[in-house]
Structure formats: structure tokens, C-alpha cells
Design a protein that fits this description.
2 copies of one chain form a homodimer. With 448 residues, chain A is of the alpha/beta class. The longest helix of chain A is centred in the N-terminal third of the chain and has 19 residues. The first copy, chain A, has 13 helices and 17 strands. Chain A folds into 2 domains: 276 residues, Aminopeptidase (3-Layer(aba) Sandwich); 123 residues, Alpha-Beta Plaits. In chain A, helix 1 packs across helix 3. In chain A, a hairpin with a 6-residue loop joins strand 1 and strand 2. Chain A has a 6-stranded mixed β-sheet with strand order 1-2-6-3-7-16, with helices on both faces. A 4-stranded antiparallel β-sheet of chain A has the order 11-12-10-13. Chains A and B meet through strand 10, helix 5, helix 6, helix 9 and strand 11 of A and strand 10, helix 5, helix 6, helix 9 and strand 11 of B. Strand 11 of chain A pairs antiparallel with strand 11 of chain B.
Chain lengths: 448, 448
């Protein structure tokens, strides 16, 4: 495939950029038209790459793109999952280039979606195109690209249920995760779930003069801070009642297996420019993100946040709170437990509103399957080292659902790196990983 | 003066509105041109009202307006202090009318500055005009209007020092405070000071994917919440080391005197729509705002605050923290103590920046002076009840400085009411108070 890449590189970039230029931000309602535009562009690219059929399918939310090429009904069927929606680009002022005008420099593609997930799903299109054009394709291939992954895929499960037959396959191939490092390829064998809520604390019914009322009326920002501070104890344990009830504690042997993954704490701290890591007592950094759940405030706001010194005792304060869950923790249950807990700890001098925003379960992938072995062999051949099985800290909520509905295991062949800063300003994707990923995917089909 | 008001009412409104339409927001740098425009408008209005001299004086910040009419060098001199700058209008979406397009309805003037302080300083212009036009003026009158009160008057003290002679006077008359209620007129005999800082907590050097890092890296929002929560203990005491060192504890007799002010806790809670008040243990609501210092978060922000559910572990979190101080607490000292304390409690996994933004000392006013007595008599005549001496919770930082530099006591004849929601959306000023204030001021000159 190397030669094919070399010959078609410029066209590849132009095609990928045509996707990246569409600001398909699923979290923002006013980007609806971009979602359809992006879905149509994918249909065009699928057909161009060699799909026999490719269409935009409406759902209750953003449309799904489905396309396929059936070689032989008896052959194994690979279904590629990807998502064409992206995270909001904010904070915009931290971008060194326009998030929606992709660039190539410093050996990488730069822009929102360069990796997550436009860049990564694009590798599949091109590996498929290569196999079709060079007549090497021996599997049936299906593609499902959704437009709501970044908001927790609220519409996809229902659509998958309705189209179960059409989606029948032997493996769900996904590139939407990272490798441990450039030098240490890895395959995720598990991901965390998510429960995401927005909370609002209301004190007085209007913003007040902080001089006239300060000291006598509960300030909702102070109260929100008190409440958030009480959610995690000094050992890093989440204090939401029942939070750990369904967490499966890993055996010593399993933990030892995970500990084989290379990890350099000093490099990690240096990369983040922090003096010290912080997390649940009794667990390593990789365990804290791989096998343990956690709680983070993803956003907080209230009162005067502009320039200068406005003195105000505000009426409301808000926070967005995310909990990453481990397999066996149920997102809906945790969401309910959190809402109950947060209301229960609210002091009587404020009112509290809790709105669930997004959720999905974590899942595990068997590492003994044919597909896992084929992926391992392919990656080893391209990257020169056998990939380590790892546990991802992120969430692809819908994969647990698809695993359950279709009875098909996902396989996470992700080629991103931490340096890509997905979800953050200046998202990028190393060309080395982009092209190495394409090659690995093409080889996966060879070995599967 | 009643008749004069009746005859000139429409002109009064038009003149006041010409001030209110200028968005002279001192907290925002891009409003600089509006400050000068507003100062020039005041010079025009001063001359129109009868001042012999009125000019715009540059300072190191926003200009000061000074004007005067000297009747007789041997007569008593009243200096009127006011400020033409206003608070930012945010949150704009909560205004029922344009904050800078004043309206009159429901018996009140509506718009930013309706009360604070354009509406209140305007009463002085018109009482003065009335006395001049009707040849009743027997005092020398000086006017000083500044444009930085809402940001803590950083430039005025130096200007006052430089112009000490020009500003010589027997009393500094100020209308920039409230009365206890419509039915209970009061005169403030003390105000709180202020120390206002902005804090920034930095965790990792970039925004991170909350799945990849959540649970392993300290989240600056969670850390900021922990730190803020630790600033006030469960008895409502501020935990900043040394915070109460200079607070003078009032005697039982003094507290009993203050307790005479009428106060209805149920009405207070109903007005604010809160179930319970909250404050320092052992003190009443009026004491909590009148004679005790406090700490409030006036603003907080960090991470994703837009629509939907962006999962991010942000790099930074910010808060604006205000402390209201009581007389004898020094704002500069408290600012320093807070900065030290906040840095000292910062955990090792974050970096903390503390920026002082604004400050000023509280002060007390003797209630036995001729000026106080004249004001009391004037207000009693207009409002039908003798005014109660009260303690204001707000701050007019510069008055303590002027008291010190000029050796002249201020006198706080404020006619605002809590219902005016100054500093908040839908600021207003009851016409009854506006005109009653003008009459009271005119009578003050009669009795002083």
C-alpha cells in the first residue's frame, strides 16, 4: 500500500480536507446544516473509494451514513465504524491556525477532526479503496459513520436496532483511539463509559449587590464550590453514594498484565507541565485512567466573568460534570445516583437543578479473537513491534450498545497519539500514524 | 422645591437620560471614549445648573469633573461627591429594556445608572439649580464627579492630594447609598471596605481529553472549588489567616442600637426567594452586612461553558473573589493576606496566580455633626419620619481616602432602595425617591 499512498497522497489530503472544512459540531444546534453536508460528502467519498452502495440515513438526530461492498455473502464481513461529528473548537483564541482550515506542517495534519475522527475514519476509506482498486478485497465491507459520537450517540442505538439485518457483520472495526506512544503501538481492549450532567445552583432570584447582601445571603458560586469539593474525598474517591457498587476490582494478575505497558511518569509530567499527578489512592496513573472510574468538572461558570472587577452576588452558578465509568458500571444508574446525591447534599438556602446530558457504558473486548490477532499481526508488521493490549480511558458510548444489539465485538485499531490533543485547541494527527494506520488496516484485511 | 420640580420635570428627565445613554462602564477598557463624553456632558449640566466654573480634569485614569459656585469665602462649603461611571450591564439577556436607553414606567426610572450613581448625583445638580435660580443659595458649593468608583477609584486619591486646596470644604455630601426602606428613611453612618482579587489555577499546560487523563491529572476546576470551599468554614468564618485581626468587635450597646433598625426576615427572604439566609454564626442579617466582613466569589469560569456536553479536562480555572471589609481593616493588608493564604493552600499539582484588582477601606461617620443633624431634619420633613442611623454593607472606597486626605467627613444622604437592584439587570430608581431626594437635599442646605 506504501506505493499507492505515495502516488495518491495529494488527492488523499484534498479529500480529507474537504471533510475537515465542514464544521460538523454536534454539540451545537446551529451546526445542523453542516451535519447533513458532511454526511453527503462521506457518501460521495465512499462511492469514489469503491462502495457499491452508500446513502445518508435519517435518524431522530443527525443522519447516519451507511455504505457497503458485498463480495460474497459467505465471506467474512468487516463493519467499519467511525464518526463525522467533531468537538466544539473553543477556546478559539488558543488555536494557532483556523480549526476548520486544515494545514500540513511539522509532519502532521492540523485542524479540528484531523484525528478525531475524520482523520482516523479516512484511513479506512483509503485502505478499502486500495484493496478494491488493486483487486485484493476478499471480505465484505460495511461502513457506518455517525454524526453524534461527541454527544453520546443518542440516536444511533435505535437506528442500529431497526437496521440489525443490514448491519450483520463479524467484527466492528474502529479507529477512534490512541496508541500508548509512537514507539509502543497498542490495541485498546476496553474503554470507559460516561455519565455527563449539567448542574445549576440558584440562590437569590436575582443578581445582588455583593456589598448590600454579601455575608448574609448564600452565594450560589460558593455553594457550588462547596458541593463540588465534597464530591471527591482526600483519597481521590468519588463520594457519590453507590458509585463504586458495580466496579469490578481487577485481580493482581490482571493488574500486573496492564502494568507491562511502558509508562514514564517523568515524561508524562513533563508533557503536561505538572509537578505532580493526582488520583485515586492505591492505583497507578495508567490504572487511574484505564480501570478506575473518576469524576471531573468539564466546565464551570457563574457571576461576572468579564474584564475588571464587577462586584456581584449572582443568582445562579453552573457546572458540567463528567464521570468516566468502567465496564459493568451502568451509565443510567450512575446518572441517577449522581442526581440523587447532588440534590441530597444541597443546603437548604439554595435550589439545585440536575440535567443529564450524555451517557454510555464502558466495555471490554476479548483479546483472543481472530480479529484481534489479525490486527496485532498487521500493526506489528508496520510499526516493527507487537502492540500491547491496553485499556483506554475515553468513551465511545455507542460501541457497548452495538456490541449488545448486534452481538458483534468491536476491535479498536486506533492510531492517535496523546500529542494530538484531540478535543483541545491545535488538534493534529501525525502523517506517520496516518499513513502507518492505512497500511496496518490494509494488512488487517490480509490477515483476517 | 416641589413646584419647581413639577414645572421642570420633563427637562430633568431629558437631562438625566442624556447622561444615562452614555455607557460609561469603567470596568471595560473599550469604553474609554464614553468616559470623556460623560464627563463633558456633566460639565455642560453643571454650567446650566448655575456653576461659575466647571471643567474636565485629566487623571492617570478616567477624568474627574470639578465645578463650583463660590458665594462668599466665609460661608460654609458643601462638596458634593458622585460618580458618573456605571457597572457593566451583563447579563444582558436578563434586562427587560435596553440598559442604555432609559425608560419611565411603573413609577420609576429604568436603566443602568438610573440610581447608581447618575440618578442620585443628578438630584444634587437640580437641588443646586433650584437654589441658584430662586436665589436661596447661601453656601459655597463644589462638585466632584469621578469616573472610576465602580473599579475602586484608583486615580482619584492622587488627584485629590494634588488639588487639596481647591477641594477644601466643610462636608462631603454623597448620594450613593440606600435607605432601609420606603417607609424607614435612614442615613448611613458607616460603610464597608473592599478587597477584590482575581485568581487563576493552572493544571496541565493544555486542555486535555477528560477520558484519557480524567482520574490521573488534577483538574484545575475541581482544585479551584476545593480551594474556594476551604476559604469559609462551617460557621461562616473566613479562614484567610489574619482576616479578623483588625476587626473591631462592637459593644453590646452598639449592637443593640443597630438592632433598632426595622428588619423583617420573612419579607427579606420573600424578596430574594430564598428558604434560608446564611452567614457568620452569632450575628444577625443586618450585622452580617453592616458590621462584619465577608468573602464572596463574584465570578467563576473554566472549561467548556457552551451548549451541550464537551468532555474536557481544562488547563485553567478562574475566579473573581471579593472581600467586604469593616472599618479598621486595611484593604491593602487583607489583599496581601489573601494572596499569601491562597498561594499557601494551593496543592502541589497546580500553579496559582493571584491578581489584586480593586480595594478600598471602610469608614465611620460621626452622627453628632451639624451636617448630620441638618440632613436628618431635612429627610424627616420630606419623608415624614426621622431617619435611622444605619450601617451600609457596600463600599465607596474613595470616601475613606478623601476623609483622610482632606480631613473632611463625608455625609451619606442616599435615597436608593434595595428594590432598585443596582449592579444587576433592570436597575431602576423610584420617582418618589428621586424627587423626595431632591427636596431633602434642598432642605439640607436650608438647615445646614
Amino acid at each position: 500500500m506504501k506505493q499507492y499512498i505515495e502516488k495518491n497522497k495529494d488527492r488523499f489530503f484534498e479529500e480529507l480536507f474537504s471533510l475537515m472544512r465542514i464544521p460538523s459540531i454536534s454539540a451545537k444546534k446551529d451546526h445542523k446544516p453542516h451535519m447533513l453536508k458532511c454526511a453527503k460528502k462521506l457518501v460521495e467519498l465512499l462511492k469514489k473509494a469503491g462502495a457499491d452502495q452508500a446513502d445518508v440515513y435519517p435518524t431522530s438526530g443527525n443522519p447516519v451514513v451507511f455504505g457497503q461492498k458485498i463480495i460474497n455473502p459467505k465471506a467474512k464481513t468487516v463493519m467499519v465504524y467511525g464518526h463525522y461529528d467533531v468537538q466544539p473548537a473553543e477556546p478559539l483564541e488558543k488555536w494557532k491556525s483556523d480549526p476548520f482550515e486544515p494545514e500540513i506542517h511539522d509532519g502532521a495534519i492540523w485542524g479540528r477532526g484531523a484525528n478525531d475522527d475524520k482523520g482516523q475514519l479516512f484511513m479506512h476509506l483509503k485502505a478499502f479503496e486500495y484493496l478494491v482498486k488493486t483487486k485484493q478485497l476478499k471480505h465484505n465491507v460495511k461502513f457506518i459513520f455517525e454524526g453524534e459520537e461527541e454527544i453520546g450517540s443518542p440516536s444511533l442505538p435505535a437506528w442500529v436496532k431497526k437496521n440489525k439485518k443490514m448491519l450483520a457483520s463479524d467484527v466492528i472495526l474502529v479507529s477512534d483511539t490512541t496508541m500508548i506512544s509512537e514507539k509502543v503501538p497498542s490495541i485498546n481492549c476496553g474503554m470507559r463509559g460516561l455519565a455527563y450532567l449539567e448542574v445549576t445552583v440558584t440562590g437569590p432570584n436575582k443578581d445582588l449587590h455583593s456589598g448590600h447582601y454579601g455575608g448574609a445571603v448564600a452565594n450560589p458560586i460558593n455553594v457550588l464550590c462547596d458541593m463540588i469539593a465534597s464530591l471527591i474525598d482526600k483519597n481521590g474517591k468519588v463520594k457519590v453514594k453507590g458509585f463504586y457498587d458495580d466496579v469490578v476490582n481487577l485481580s493482581k494478575a490482571d493488574r500486573a498484565q496492564l502494568a507491562r505497558a511502558p509508562f514514564n511518569l517523568n515524561e508524562y509530567k513533563k508533557f503536561l507541565d505538572i509537578n505532580e499527578v493526582k488520583g485515586e489512592k492505591g492505583y497507578t496513573t495508567l490504572e487511574r485512567t484505564g480501570i478506575r472510574p473518576c469524576l471531573d468538572v468539564c466546565g464551570i461558570w457563574g457571576g461576572y466573568t468579564g474584564e475588571g472587577a464587577k462586584t456581584v452576588l449572582p443568582s445562579t452558578a453552573h457546572a458540567k460534570i463528567s464521570m468516566r465509568l468502567v465496564p459493568n458500571q451502568d451509565s443510567a444508574t450512575i446518572t441517577k445516583l449522581f442526581a440523587q446525591h447532588f440534590k441530597a447534599i444541597a443546603p437548604k438556602y439554595v435550589k439545585v437543578k440536575v440535567e443529564p446530558k450524555e451517557g454510555g457504558n464502558g466495555f471490554l473486548i476479548p483479546i483472543t479473537s481472530d480479529a484481534f490477532k489479525a490486527a496485532s499481526k498487521a500493526i506489528a508488521e508496520v510499526f516493527g513491534t507487537e502492540p500491547v493490549p491496553s485499556r483506554g480511558g475515553g468513551s465511545i458510548a455507542v460501541l457497548a450498545d452495538m456490541q449488545k444489539i448486534l452481538g458483534t465485538d468491536p476491535l479498536l485499531m486506533g492510531f492517535g497519539l496523546e500529542r494530538d490533543t484531540i478535543h483541545s485547541p491545535n488538534e493534529s494527527y501525525l502523517l506517520k500514524q496516518f499513513f502507518g494506520g492505512m497500511e496496518s488496516i490494509a494488512l488487517f484485511y490480509k490477515y483476517y
